[in-house]
Amino acid sequence: MSTVMDRSTLLVVAILLTLAAVLILVVVRQTRKTYPGFGLWAGSMALAMAGTVSFLTIQQVNPRLALLIGSLLLVVAFVFLYRGLLEFRGRTANYAFELLLALVLFAGFVFFGFVRPNLNGYVAVYSLCLGSAAAMGARVVLTGRPSYFGSPDRILASWLGLITAFTWSRAAYSALFLAPIDSLNTDTTFQTAYIAFQIISVLVITFAVINLNSQRLEHELRTTQASLERDIEERRRVEGALLRSQQQYRSLTENMDDNAWIYDMDDQRFVYVSPSVRKLKGYTPDEVMRLAIDSMVLPHQREQMQAVIDGRHRDFLSDKITSQDFFLDELEQPCKGGKTVWTEISSHFVRSAETGHVEVHGVTRDLTGRREITEALRASEEKFRLAFASANTGIFLSDLEGRIQQTNSRAEQILGYNADELRGMLEQNLALAGDAWLTESNRKRMTDGLVDHSTYEQRFTHRDGPIVHCLVSSALVRGADGKPNAFITQLQDITQRRLAEKALHAALKKSATHAARMGALNETVKGLMRCENREQALQLIESRLEKMFFPFECQFVQADLQGHLPESSADAQDFSVDLQGKVIGILRIYAEDALLREEDLAQFAETVSDSISLALANLQLREETRLRVGTDGG
Fold it and tell me: Is residue 522 classed exposed, middle or buried when 0-12, 13-18 and 19+ CB atoms within 10 A define those classes?
């Protein structure tokens, strides 16, 4: 009886200590920050206490029911501990393991409680399940542990390992060595030691899980503190940067030429004007801030300006425009002293974060220099346009590929195309096929940087077919960045000059040919004057005909003894040679009549025939004179 009382006393101590552990865990959970799984740990202790109570109380009424409820609650207590560790580490629960434990425990209860009653066997099954739950808990603690965890999780893992070894040893002892028992109250030294071990386990596990939570909380606090320190440092850095930015902005607005200002639409007054307004308009910032906004423009502009501002104000209030919408206006504004200045105003509407008022933030810039430049540019462009349009030479503006963008009327006259037809055409396609390479070659030299401009002659095909000779001057146009971006080409029609040069060349050639022929004729006449008889004269004439009529073929054909001449040829022209009114032969030139007229050969041939006739007549006279002199002397 004293032994039972001793065991009951141990169970009561275990219940009280477990209850204390539950209360401690509940208090910690309510008063301090805890992490997922801590509630399951408190529940685990509560289940362990309930299991111990069932062993102590229900055992007296229904031993089997006490055995089932007590063992089930203790196993579930360790499952809660295991589940709490999983949640604490942020892992997913393994329901298959929990179901397996429940099935094994229930099957052991049924088999050893009713099929083959054996309390030793059920104690072995229950101890095996309890040790398995403790082993799984130890595995969770030891695997994937964060680097900042220290001794608490090692202590918990070690103790869960001892629980596993102790319960599995109890299972082996109950099944193999322990004499058959019929009640859990049967006195065994091992069972008493087991209850004492459970009491120590409650203390160790409670201490370990509280320290696990505290250690994680301390790490989070250290992390939070470090984060706060970084945030504070970042805020100091941002505040310093903001202060520097404000100083830079103030320096910028106070020293820039442009005038920055803020106008409050609700109070209808300027709330800020930068000092540069003095340089722009002659007023000080204080003077401008005391003026109404309509005094900032000329009288005839006030009504229109007010309507524009009011319209934009309404659009801003109705969300039709936002603070991201900027407006750009040009206004002529009065200056102090009566002068005016043209300005460009960039503005946008915002709502002040401090007052909630709608404000217009703007920058006013002096346009005097820009307008002078613009006017000069406009005048320059007008001069260029007039020069371009009225130039006596044809002008093309084309891109880098040679595609025509713009032409003047003279270019249209030279080539016979209108402006719409020329626009988009390639310049090289307008050139005669054999001259197109000139355009591409000269442009490549310019784009390669070898020359900036080039001048050359090129033939073009007129829209109606004729060939147009042009003197081409092409120049490369570069942009502000120095890169090529266009070509400007001038065409000067030199067709008439080329035709005149060709006619002059032909005339000179013709004159030279005629002079050569006349020279040959003179030499022939001189030779005939030296001939002694007619046969020598005719031979000389035959030898000189080729030189006189080159490049045409020419023959001297004599009449026969009866004075008959050969028939004329269709591809030749004949010129008669007379002697004392009688035709003695012909000059036959092989050429068409039109060609003879073009070369003035007909007239020359007549001159040659007359010269031959005269020379032969002179030769005959000399022969007759010699004969008469000889007869008189005899």
Answer: exposed
pLDDT of residue 4: 43
The conformation of residue 111, written as its DSSP 8-state character, comes to I
Question: Token pair for residue 91?
Answer: 């892992």
Instruction: State the number of CA atoms in the 13 A half-sphere of 296 facing the CB.
Output: 26
- Residue 371's SS3 state is helix
Please write the tens of the pLDDT for every residue from 273-329: 888 888 888 888 888 888 887 777 888 888 888 888 899 999 999 999 998 999 998
Q: What is the pLDDT of residue 604?
A: 78
Sort 215 into a burial class: Cβ within 10 Å, 0-12 / 13-18 / 19+: middle
pLDDT, tens digit, for every residue of 481-501?
888 888 989 888 888 888 888
Give the burial class of 481: count Cβ atoms within 10 A of its Cβ; 0-12 exposed, 13-18 middle, 19 or more buried: exposed
Long-range contacts (CB closer than 8 Å, 24 or more residues apart) made by 266-275: 266/355, 266/357, 266/358, 267/357, 268/292, 268/293, 271/359
- Is residue 373 scored above 90 in pLDDT? no
Q: Which residues pair with 264 in a beta bridge?
A: 269, 359
Nearest-angstrom CA–CA distance, 549 and 600: 11
Q: Which pLDDT score is estimated for 469?
A: 92
Calpha distance 454→329 (Å, rounded): 46
CB 563 within 8 A of CB 576: no
Nearest to 4 by CA among 200, 217, 195: 195
Nearest 10 degrees: Cα torsion 426, 428, 432, 436: -160
pLDDT at residue 1 tops 50: no
> 275: which 2 tokens?
């000092």
Strand order in the sheet with 404-407: 404-407, 394-398, 484-493, 467-478, 453-461
Query: Does this model's pTM top 0.85?
Result: no
pLDDT in tens, 183-237: 655 545 667 777 788 888 888 888 888 888 888 888 888 888 888 888 898 888 8
